[in-house]
Amino acid sequence: MSFETAYSTEGIFENINALEANQHFFDGILTDPYAFQCSENCSYPLTCKSFKKKSTEWKKAPHFCPGKNHSNSVHTCGKEQEDTSPHTDGQQNQEHSVEKNKDRISLNIFLSTGFDVLKIKSEKQDDHTEDPSIRTIRTPNTHLPPKKENAQVNSLIRLLHYYYSESFPNNQYLFKTLDNKRYCLNDLFFDLDTSPEIPDVNKVFFGTARIIEKPTYYVVRMKEFCTLRNIRSKPSILIGKKLLTDNITLSNRFNRLSKISEFKFFYFGKIIVRRNEYLNFECKSESKLLANLYLKD
Ligand SMILES: [Zn+2]
Fold first, then answer.
1. Could you give the percent of the chain with pLDDT greater than 70?
2. CA of 74 to the centre of ligand 1 (A)
3. Domain edges within the chain
């Protein structure tokens, strides 16, 4: 049994996944691992495990489970059943569930273009940074059958949620992109800490990183050396402070993480060779950059 999302009763009053809850703790938005319930309309209490743990300290990634004092109470709203995903315990059970849930997760992007900035009312930057050409590409996909909200992946944090969720198998082809190609999470993610040979394709590259702060920009640099086309370097990306001015939470996170030794960095896109010397995370469009990177305490 698992709860993919929980309703936060502490300040933000919306459904979030446990990775978001964990990051909200470090961003100073949430403080209480017990201030969650099943949904807006169901007060069944939930606890966020590993709520205050940094990604470098996780034994298990953050997840929701029934609150301690209510583990015996009956929970009847049905959300738990819906959220319960393919089990990883028992091969037979797993295969059966996966078979049954084929196509259940739409990854609403083309791998070549990455994620778009989500429209969030509270963040005014989103209104003018969305690329109008992307909307045109998306229009033909309105024929897709309506699906539950939790079966749609529109953001990098949502994809990370599945990658770290213990109840999702990372080796099954459960994700379908807008061009109807199927992917498993192991194909989509690439760990730069343990695999130094970089493939020349779009993936979620991730690993331990550091930030160097300069007056007008930050440089995020991976901790480990990697190799691409015989160039050996630590992949890095430069992010102008100006780009962060409309996103105070992220701006504060850059500032905070630049003062600690290391954290986890995720980047959806490609790594390229620059000036025959450096390895850089490719930034095709500044307007989409922030939607395709994630800094995790
Ligand atoms: Zn419920």
1. 79
2. 10
3. 5-83, 91-187, 189-296
